[in-house]
What does this fold into?
Amino acid sequence: MLDSLWCGGFLLDVRGRVLSLNLIAFGCLCDGLVRGGEYLSASDRDADHRLQYLVGEAIKCSPNSKLPAAVAVPRRERLPLMVRVVRVTLTGIGPRMGQTCCCSPSTPRSGPNRRANC
It folds into this structure.
């Protein structure tokens, strides 16, 4: 699933732990996003507070609930990463793993049909 995205993708479990990430998301680490142990964080304190809030809301909300807007994660000398959290439901893998969220960081780009990357 994550490898088919045209942006970075982190798959998180119901506790916010990173289960999987694609190659584009891996490239975002140490450039706005960091992985501290099992958890994803933003390197900027204010952006990290917003990111943690967004992930928490995605984890506890119902599948049809509207989530807050994306988080802009600042980076040095580059456009910020826009991180959007999407709730996904996976079936057949047990009750604790059935509800997860996916953080999708991307860099705003100009022009149509440009693949977003970090």
Confidence is low (pLDDT under 50) at residues 94-99, 110-118. Residues 29 and 35 are 7 Å apart (CA to CA).
